[in-house]
Amino acid sequence: MTDPQNWHAPTGDANDRPRYGEYAPPPASGAPQAWGPPPAWTPPPRPGLLPLRPLGFGSLLWAPFQVLRRNPKATFGSALLVQGAILLVTLLIVGPVTLLALGRVDSAPLADRDAVEAGANLTIVLSAIVPILLSVIASALLQGIIVVEVSRAMLGQKLRLGQLWRVAGRRLWPLALWAAILSGALIAGLAIVAGVVVVCVLLGGAGVVFGIIFGILGGLGILALSAWLTTKTSLVPSLIVLERLGIWASIARSWSLTRGYFWRTLGVQFLVALIVNIVSQIVSTPLSLLGGVAISLINPTGAIDSWIPVIVIYVLTIIVSLVLGAVAAVVQSGTTALIYIDLRMRKEGLDLDLQRFVESAPGSATDDPYLIPAGRMPAAPQS
Q1: Is 112 exposed, middle or buried, given 0-12, 13-18 or 19+ CB atoms closer than 10 A?
Q2: Which intervals of the chain are annotated as region Disordered (predicted)?
Q3: Is the C-alpha dihedral spanning 376, 236, 51, 145 positive or negative?
């Protein structure tokens, strides 16, 4: 047994001995082998929004709200500008046209009123085309802005509003075309179902029953088909912006990335949309219900012109709707961008590319970790 009084500290420089969490150097030839402690676990780096590792289900649910809080001026500000511009154009175009059309109907002779009313309705519908087109373009731009913000936030970068708009604006037209394709497909499906129902009802008799049944089943079918196609192609905007692919290449790649993760992708998007909708209803429903009560309290005797309280309540409702719509747009667009990054981490090791980018010196050859070199581009999905 070793005498404690004769014990001496081991010789040699302390820097030569392994630190905790490191393997000891190999022993010299003939020397007894010494085993050190195992390497210490190192958590994945977190330079920005989330740790650079595949994301859990819970992270995908709360992280979109972090996107809104992390850079509110650029994200919420962009969404508010887009929503406000759409509303303003709608009021400036559809509002005056509607007033003129209804005025013509009121002043038309009784014999011509039906024809004038039909023409007025057609004019109002045509005037809404411009705001609808603007809405498609603006919504596509906003989606691209949020995709850029999420991708930079993962790297710890914080772009200003103007920078986000410039980067997303370079891919505006492919984004807008994709949004138009989605909207057109949905409208075409609904038009087909509605047309069949109208024809069956006009035939009368058993056609009415068939039309009702077809309308119910057709509506449910369109709902299921829309959920499936929307989920499978939900990554297209992220691919258009971050990988700079065309529309059809983005569709094929989104189809491939979501393979094996369909229900997870659908579940995250559905739950986030449900949370946003519940919060919106909690805020907007009391305002709508209390509108009439507020008018009675403000003007109990009718001394004030009746239209003044109505306008006040209507303006407040519009403001609340704009705010809620801006929040919903940021959160839902952020959700799809985070799902895209998570799937690439799981399937292609994007987390390692992001870590290398963060650790590399500025100005190095690693310009954009989200771009895939030509030699590493995955093969097209097999049918």
Answers
A1: exposed
A2: 1-43
A3: positive
Q: How many structural domains is the chain composed of? A: 1
**Per the domain annotation, does 162 fall within a domain?**
yes
Q: What is the pLDDT along the chain (383 residues), one digit of tens a residue?
A: 444 444 444 444 444 444 434 444 555 555 555 555 555 556 677 787 888 899 888 889 899 999 888 889 999 999 999 988 888 888 888 888 888 877 877 777 777 777 777 777 888 888 888 888 888 888 889 999 999 999 999 988 888 999 999 999 999 999 999 999 988 888 898 889 889 888 888 888 788 888 888 889 998 999 999 999 999 999 999 999 999 999 999 999 999 999 999 999 999 999 999 999 998 888 887 777 776 666 666 656 555 555 666 677 777 888 888 889 899 999 999 999 999 999 999 999 998 889 888 887 555 555 788 988 665 655 544 43
Q: Is residue 374 part of a domain?
A: no
Q: Which domain holds residue 314?
A: 54-356
Task: List own/partner pairs for 43-47 with CB under 8 A and 24 or more apart.
Answer: 44/351, 44/355, 45/355, 45/358, 45/359, 47/154, 47/155, 47/156, 47/358
Q: Please provide the DSSP assignment of 168-204 as one string.
A: HHTTHHHHHHHHHHHHHHHHHHHHHHHHHHHHHHHH-
3-state secondary structure of 216: helix
Asked if 244 and 174 count as a contact pair (C-beta separation under 8 A), the reply is no
Cα 293 to Cα 287: distance, rounded to the nearest angstrom: 10
Return the residue matching tokens 């705010």: 323
Q: Report yes or no on 85 lying in a domain.
A: yes
| The model's pTM | 0.79
